[in-house]
């Protein structure tokens, strides 16, 4: 009976948008989510240990590209969105959404320290009637096997006193078409009461909710989505290396193949894979599979191929320089783009970092230009974006396109560069002589 009363009470608060919503982690996932909840009338409190982020939110200052400045400022002005570093205020929340990082260790094993730390914080302040939903991408079993025991250590039972669900984030930074609101949302929980309140909560802001039977099913859904992408990217990356040996253009082959109207979908090669999902998530599934004495060979091979691409780029660059009688040592290389994908400011896990590191290892002088990333500090590097001028381009022995930002003046690059290695096929759309351009 108590369980039913708590479910009904929380459902009523969700329906009336009077439920107090806490979002733990105000990064690329958490802040857009907090804004969407605020826009439908929920009062949202963001939690983050980064005091600078908290201060910016409370001042209405945006720092995430997928959030509109005016939306954030308006919600803060209305009192619908605020932020804090004070975890004791978790006790005030009716719904707590966790959106913290899930990195890998150096050995490519899951690192759940942030999820575990946040769950312990929640357990310390847990009270009956709260819904906790994990959005961070992780291996199947995390919600039930890691979070649930920590929460129930408080003396409250999941499914009776409190509710626990998993709803993996589906954020595509820079995608203007699919946003938090109109991207289908998978929601899973391992008991009926938790599933009911979680689905009700997400349906208040998400246009279409896809309900699955358990938290583990939701967790596996997300890691499969990104594993699918990683494997297909690895396939075209391997084809790229083969075409290089055969003297064929992989871009021509792919364009021809993708003209088929059925049975195939476009994936393209590049200098590697980057971001917070594709380089990491498949290894979560690979790691979990070992518990079942199962060897995920496709996943392991795909990761190996994708991780090799920066080396392939640098090796091809060395060949280009060698054909002109130059060695890598002492050559000046201008890298165009360090963000992990087009038109965003996020350099996390960007393959550009490894490419630049390898250039530097071979004693090349490396500079970069990126209109979205002013300061690049990945992999121990400490570089600042240089203005893209004719003089800077002419000074380079080789220009390497690593990220295909639209704002870059590629016509200028084509006119002024001695030689260009294009890993993104950006010069396909540039009306300029291409005699100095070599494709990946």
What does this structure look like?
By secondary structure, this protein is of the alpha/beta class. The chain has 2 domains: 212 residues, Rossmann fold (3-Layer(aba) Sandwich); 211 residues, Rossmann fold. 41% of the residues lie in helices and 13% in strands. It has a 6-stranded parallel beta sheet. Strands 10-9-13-14-15 form a 5-stranded parallel beta sheet. A two-stranded parallel sheet has the order 7-8.
Short description:
The protein is of the alpha/beta class and 440 residues long. The chain has 14 helices and 15 strands.
Give the uncertain stretches in residue-range form. Answer: none
Strand content: 5-15%
Look at the structure and give the mean pLDDT.
94
Fourth CATH level, the homologous superfamily of the largest domain: NAD(P)-binding Rossmann-like Domain
The CATH architecture designation of the largest domain is: 3-Layer(aba) Sandwich
- Domains counted in the coordinates: how many? 2
Number of helices: 14
Structural class: alpha/beta
Q: Topology as H/E string?
A: HEHEHHEEHEHEEHEHHHHEHEEEHEHEE
Span between N and C termini? Answer: 65 Å
Shape category: elongated
* Helix coverage percent: 40-55%
Look at the structure and give the CATH class of the largest domain. Answer: Alpha Beta
Summarize the biggest pleated sheet.
6 strands, parallel
Q: What is the name of the CATH topology of the largest domain?
A: Rossmann fold
Gyration radius, in Å = 24 Å
């Amino acid at each position: 009976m108590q369980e039913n009363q708590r479910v009904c009470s929380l459902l009523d608060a969700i329906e009336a948008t009077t439920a107090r919503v806490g979002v733990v982690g105000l990064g690329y996932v958490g802040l857009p989510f907090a804004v969407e909840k605020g826009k439908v009338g929920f009062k949202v409190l963001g939690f983050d240990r980064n005091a600078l982020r908290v201060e910016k939110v409370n001042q209405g200052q945006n720092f995430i590209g997928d959030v509109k400045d005016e939306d954030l400022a308006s919600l803060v002005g209305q009192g619908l969105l605020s932020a804090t570093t004070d975890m004791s205020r978790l006790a005030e929340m009716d719904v707590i959404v966790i959106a913290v990082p899930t990195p890998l260790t150096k050995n490519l094993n899951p690192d759940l320290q942030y999820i575990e730390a946040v769950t312990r914080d929640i357990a310390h302040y847990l009270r009956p009637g709260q819904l906790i939903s994990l959005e961070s991408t992780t291996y199947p079993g995390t919600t039930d096997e890691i979070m649930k025991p920590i929460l129930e250590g408080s003396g409250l039972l999941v499914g009776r006193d409190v509710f626990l669900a998993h709803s993996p984030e589906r954020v595509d930074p820079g995608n203007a078409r699919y946003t938090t609101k109109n991207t289908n949302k998978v929601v899973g929980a391992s008991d009926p009461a938790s599933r009911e309140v979680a689905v009700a909560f997400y349906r208040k802001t998400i246009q279409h909710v896809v309900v699955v039977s358990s938290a583990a099913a939701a967790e596996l859904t997300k890691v499969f989505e990104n594993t699918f992408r990683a494997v297909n990217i690895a396939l075209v990356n391997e084809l790229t290396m083969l075409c290089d040996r055969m003297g064929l253009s992989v871009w021509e082959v792919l364009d021809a193949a993708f003209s088929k109207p059925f049975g195939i979908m476009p994936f393209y090669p590049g200098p590697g894979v980057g971001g917070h999902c594709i380089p990491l998530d498949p290894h979560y599934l690979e790691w979990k599979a070992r518990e079942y004495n199962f060897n995920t060979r496709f996943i392991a091979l795909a990761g190996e191929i994708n991780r090799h691409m920066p080396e392939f780029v640098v090796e091809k660059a060395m060949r280009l320089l060698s054909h002109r009688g130059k060695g890598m040592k002492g050559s000046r290389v201008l890298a165009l783009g360090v963000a992990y994908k087009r038109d965003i400011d996020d350099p996390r896990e960007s393959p550009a970092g490894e490419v630049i590191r390898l250039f530097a290892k071979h004693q090349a002088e490396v500079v970069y230009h990126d209109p979205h990333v002013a300061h690049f500090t990945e992999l121990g590097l400490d570089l600042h974006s240089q203005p893209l001028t004719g003089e800077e381009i002419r000074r380079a022995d080789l220009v390497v396109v690593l990220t295909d930002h639209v704002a870059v003046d590629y016509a200028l690059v084509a006119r002024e560069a001695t030689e260009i290695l294009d890993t993104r096929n950006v010069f396909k759309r540039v009306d300029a002589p291409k005699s100095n351009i070599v494709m990946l």
